[in-house]
Amino acid sequence: MAVQKNKEMRRFVVLAVNVTESGQIIHIDRKIPAHLFRCKGILLSVKNCINTVHDIPHLGEVSLLLNSGQIHPFHHMVSFKREALNRNSYFVEISEKLVPNLTVNGFYRDSGKAFNTSGTFVPYCLNIYLDCLATE
Fold first, then answer.
1. For the chain, what are the domain ranges?
2. Right CATH number for 8-135 from 1.10.10, 3.40.1350, 2.60.120, 1.10.12?
C-alpha cells in the first residue's frame, strides 16, 4: 500500500494595519488558516504614499506572536521608503511551525512621524506579509 504525501505549496497571508492617527497603537489578532503549517518569512510594506521629500527611517514598530502567543519570532522597526515594493524585496527569514486554528497576535505602534510636507498627519496602511507553507 502506497502512502501519498501531501504536496507543499507557498502561500502568503497579508495582515493589513490601517493607521488613522498619529501615535496610534493597533492590536493584531488574526486566525491563520488550518492548512498553513510553517511560516518562513515576514515582509513589511507601507501602502499609500506619504507625500514627503525624504524617507522616514522610524515610522513605527511591529511585534508579532505566532500560535496564539506561544512564539515571539518578530519585533522590528518599520521604515518608509519612497521606492515601491518589488520582486527583490527582502523577507526576514524565520522558520516557525504553525499550529492549526491558532492566531497571529501582536501590535503596531505608530511613531508619530507620518506627516506630509505641510505638516498634516497622513493616514497609511502597513501590510505585513507572512510567507508560509501549506498543504494541498
1. 8-135
2. 2.60.120
Rounded CA separation 124/105 (Å):
20
Question: Which grid cell is 8?
Answer: 507543499
CA distance 129 to 107: 15
How many residues does the structure list for the chain? 136
Percent of the chain topping pLDDT 70: 85
Q: What is the DSSP letter of 54?
A: S
Mean residue pLDDT of the chain comes to 88
Which pLDDT value is given to residue 48?
63
pLDDT at 57: 87
Would you give the DSSP letter of residue 113? Answer: -
What distances in angstroms separate CA 52 from CA 6, 43, 47, 122, 127, one per listed residue?
48, 22, 14, 10, 20
Q: Considering the entire predicted model, what is its pTM?
A: 0.87
